[in-house]
Amino acid sequence: MTETLTLAKAVNSALADSLEGDDRVLLMGEDIGKLGGVFRVTDGLQDRFGPQRVIDSPLAESAIIGTAIGMSYRGFRVVAEIQFDGFIYPAFDQIVAQVAKLRYRSQGRVSMPLTIRVPFGGAIGSVEHHSESPESYFAHTAGLRVVTASTPQEAYSTLRAAIQSDDPVLFFEPKGKYYTKGEVDRSIVRDLETANVVASGRDVTIAAYGPTVDTALRAAVAAADEGIEVEVIDLRSISPLDVDTVVESVRRTGRLVVTHEAPAESSVSSELIASVAERAFAHLEAAPERVTGYDTPYPPSAVEHDYLPSLDRLLDAVDRTLGRRNSRTDLDYSALTTGAAR
Amino acid sequence: MSITVPAPDPELAAGLDGPLTVLDLDGTRLPSELLDPHLRDIDEHALTNLYVDMVRVRRLDTEAFALTRQGQLVLWPPLLGQEAAQVGPARALGEQDWVFGSYREHGFALLRGADMGEFARIWKAYAHSGWDPREIRMAPSQIIIGAQTLHGVGYAMAAKMDGADEVALTTFGDGATSEGDVNEALVWASTFQAPVVFLCQNNQYAISEPVHVQSGVPLALRPTGFGIPSMRVDGNDVLAMHAAARIAFDRARAGDGPTFIEAVTYRRGPHTTTDDPKRYRDEAEVEAWIAKDPIDRVERALERMGANMEAVRAEAKIRADQLAKEFRAAAEHAVPPVADEIFDNVYAQPTRRLERQRLEHRAFVSSIEGAK
Amino acid sequence: MKTFLLPDLGEGLTDSEIVAWKVAEGDTVELNQPLADIETAKAVVELPSPYEGTIAKLHAGEGETVDVGAPLIDFDVGGDDSAAPTADASAPADEQVPDAPGPVGDEPDVVTAPASAPETNLAAEAEAAAPADDKPEKVSVLVGHITVHGGKPTRAKRTWDAEPFERAEVRGPNRAMPPVRKLAKDRGVDLQSVRPSGADGLVTRADVEGHGVASAPVAAPASTRTKVTGLRKHTAAAMTQSALTVPHAATFHQVDVTETLALAKSGDASFLALASRAILLATKRWPDVTAAFHADTNELERFAHVNLGIAVSTDRGLVVASVDAAEAMDAVELTAQIKDRAVRAREGSLTMAELTSSNITISNVGVFGVDGGIPILNPGESAIIALGAIRRLPWNHADEIVLRDVCTVTVSFDHRVLDGREAAGFLADIAAVLEQPSLALAR
């Protein structure tokens, strides 16, 4: 049985079904109760499950995570919401230094089945701190699972799995896709570490996650006009990375483009390309490419479409891997050495 | 630096049994032992100026709100109802003082002299900052709740180290008082007796959450636990706010350390233009606060003082409409950023890595037919 | 005429519903006059008029959903600038847009949300031209179907004509590292026709160099110099040291190994392992063959165990891998141990101890098809045995000339430790067992 839901509503359904199925599940966050969340993702949940289980928290991100850790000690499965990606940093200590390490520090005797929901990514035309992609900070931390969703179905199935997991999970929701619709089968619960091959092709592999999966699929469609077959992989999990699936694909295509909205430096693409180089180096027909946000702060959103990966930037990179003419074919980098690029 | 921490004083908070008010709703001047000495120079002319300021601030706010609905701005956090809470303290600031505010400080920005053309660019998402912080002595608007309070304390500590006659005003909302940063700012201000003024604009809501989610006691009681004197003031009374701010600035300048002001006010509009307050509060509550409108009571006070209100209103309207027109034009004319600016000002010295990306982005843009 | 497009009234919204119109076509409106109530995914909001003028057309009815970026209202604002307070403001802004390098797709004669049309980008003219139609649509790709939103995606036109894409080659199973691929390309060698010797089907540099030289008429340079590194460099140094400091002598013996070979073919022990057994038996009678001579102290060091070194040729050079305490092993176990050392030598996974602990070495030079030679001692050892190729030769066997399997066995030795009598005795004992394996039972 499937139903057509927006991604936001799919998240809402996953939360509702989790609350329904396990009375130790509770939700906590700023404005998630009466308001139903700033994106209406938790709409109606407080009415249905009560203010004891859908808690409007004081405005303090560190406390949201810190107190959720305390609740986890008593066996609650807390689903904490951080309102926007850019607001997560006050909670950084509680996430990377506290909850991530408790299983390890207690020699496995303490479980922290905490899920941290974070709307992330740009393309919503908003102001500062509302469009960021901070996932790499957390992927760098052992003990945290970091997962994303690209479609309403993935949002539903992955969030259900995240809440059921006994590990702390950061669930990054592509807020720019909250209002896109898709079919959702609520009987499907996914695992937390396998990538999906969402389009098959022989010529080049594009690995994406979250909001860039749609961009990659659109690029695949456009590339088909030129006779180029693009394989698209939705990584789903950022940590751990499903390198196996990507390596298997690259062994067939010989070419890899990795895309995400986060900056390139020390990012998911850094890790994925390094892993593929380690394991499939001889299979690469061209240097891997990446199409990501630039290594700058998130810019004013008036120019975010220049910053964000786009269909055309992706295909430009695809052309590079195929040795076809591309925007850098005649690019003269010599100006850089003289500092004259500006 | 030698540190002297004063002993806690149970009498540190004023106004706990009712916000300090000097202008009644009907415009009657109420006596206040604490505030009156600081209002002796406020005559009809001075009050008229505060009135015009508030009318202009409100007009700017409503025009910006409309411009957002019309797609000219991407977002607007309205301050409707909070005009007195900003105008009163803003007019108590010295030219040399600094403001460290949140994102709803349009009154401060206007009165500090922010250029409206540049100011509009923030809310068109053309720029992250809408003024030169050093020129108008106001830090860029702050979206991360409460973070600016630490900056204000640090600025004040530095001013004190330099022996400068400068005070930092840091302003934030009721929700911010729950953040670690704000509580840490209070600790530091107290420990180092920094010349800083904490202005908490308690507009009753942190987006949807009423203030009792943040605190079971009046917010003005909180700082007393940190050893910081505090005043709970009617935030819709521009004179009370002005006087309280003067007290706080005088204390800071005299070397008496930090002061906390809770401005009890109300956000009549939504949190931002994307919010829907009907989901979390009753219309009756809003109506009750409309009756406490900060501008109406000044009109009544001026009437009582014998002012020619028709002329005052006309003058205020002309100036407000002029501002609105100027702001609309600024919003519509604002020059969008060029993509190349993405790469500017990330570092003091441009890095080769980033300049390479700039070059590659330019090459990509120019590879597209018809693009520039 | 001004067309007002529905802006994104929330953050990232794709559409909104018209709840109620507060004006009708033909109405005159003021700037900021409420025109409609609009419901987004987040709230019901009031739309204030962006112009002063007359409503020329309402593009949607009450209850209808309108996409962000789609036309909502046409305004007749008149040609007289002074009549409309905003006309002077909006006109220059309109003119600026085409020059502005911001998001294109905001046509000059319309007012849009600066953050309009999700998924447009600076370059995507094609997408911007098609108003956001967010109905999911199945689009055919080369493999199956993909559901995409916002119409069929197409690529922006570039400043050059797109070259047709031709799939260069069918990727076969053979892989190689980039420098080897380049080597193959330079030599005109098709990688897929090379027999790979590396792990996981990897074609090595040697595979390419050894492949179809004749069929590749590439003008070879008169000579080339290659930097000697790694194991090869180490081997060179060790051999030089050994050859220059140890007085080598050697002795040969042609041996009829027919019976040993038959044993190897019928059982679980390899010929090399059986030969090793013969050597190990001989070391019992001639223990100094495993001793080490220390020239600095003039001492002879004798060892409790025979650590039998197996010389293995690898891509990277020669290594000697030790099977420690080999004297205690039977031939089957030795077979396994020798195989293990050979495999791991080629993988490069031998331990430092395994590479340094031998005290006598066996080298099976016969695999290269030669009968023998004088091997240089592994540094620190006093004897090395080379086994030549096994050949079917006419042979005097029981006083008849018959074809027998014959192998030349060579012993090189350190003349400071052993003299000719001992070396010859050692070799004769080895030969005796190889000729008549049953002797092993007696020894």
Automatic annotation (TrEMBL), chain A:
Q: Give the matching Pfam families.
A: Transket_pyr (PF02779), Transketolase_C (PF02780)
CDD domains, A to Z? TPP_PYR_E1-PDHc-beta_like (cd07036)
UniProt GO molecular function: magnesium ion binding; oxidoreductase activity
Q: Which UniProt keywords apply?
A: Oxidoreductase, Thiamine pyrophosphate
What cofactor is needed?
thiamine diphosphate
InterPro entries from the UniProt entry: THDP-binding, Transketo_C/PFOR_II, Transketolase-like_Pyr-bd, Transketolase_C
Annotated Transketolase-like pyrimidine-binding domain residues: 5-180
Report which superkingdom the organism of origin falls in: Bacteria
Q: Coiled coil where?
A: none
| Keyword Oxidoreductase included in the entry's annotation | yes
**Keyword flag Endoplasmic reticulum:** no
Q: What name has this protein been given in UniProt?
A: 2-oxoisovalerate dehydrogenase subunit beta
What taxonomic classification does the UniProt entry list for its organism?
A: Bacteria, Bacillati, Actinomycetota, Actinomycetes, Micrococcales
TrEMBL record, chain B:
- Which domain of life does the UniProt lineage start with? Bacteria
- What UniProt keywords apply to this chain's record, in alphabetical order? Oxidoreductase, Pyruvate, Thiamine pyrophosphate
Coiled coil among keywords: no
EC class name: oxidoreductase
Q: Which Pfam families does its entry note?
A: E1_dh
Any Gene Ontology biological process? branched-chain amino acid catabolic process
A single Gene Ontology MF term assigned here is: branched-chain 2-oxo acid dehydrogenase activity
Ranges for domain Dehydrogenase E1 component:
54-331
InterPro entries with a match to the protein in the record: Alpha-ketoacid_DH_E1_comp, DH_E1, THDP-binding
- Keyword Signal in the entry? The reply is no
Alphabetical list of PANTHER family matching this protein: 2-OXOISOVALERATE DEHYDROGENASE SUBUNIT ALPHA, MITOCHONDRIAL
The molecule here is called 2-oxoisovalerate dehydrogenase subunit alpha
TrEMBL record, chain C:
Q: Which residues form the Lipoyl-binding domain?
A: 1-76
Which PROSITE patterns does the record associate with it? BIOTINYL_LIPOYL, LIPOYL, PSBD
- Start and end of every Peripheral subunit-binding (PSBD) domain? 175-212
Sample GO molecular function, one term: acetyltransferase activity
Q: What are the required cofactors?
A: (R)-lipoate
Q: Where is composition skewed (Low complexity) in this entry?
A: 80-94
Please give the superkingdom of this protein's source.
Bacteria
**Assigned EC number:** 2.3.1.-
Disordered: where is this region?
74-114
Q: Which CDD domains match?
A: lipoyl_domain
A Pfam family name for this chain? E3_binding
Q: What does the similarity note say?
A: Belongs to the 2-oxoacid dehydrogenase family.
The name this protein goes by in its record: Dihydrolipoamide acetyltransferase component of pyruvate dehydrogenase complex
Name the source organism. Agrococcus baldri
Q: What is the lineage of its organism?
A: Bacteria, Bacillati, Actinomycetota, Actinomycetes, Micrococcales
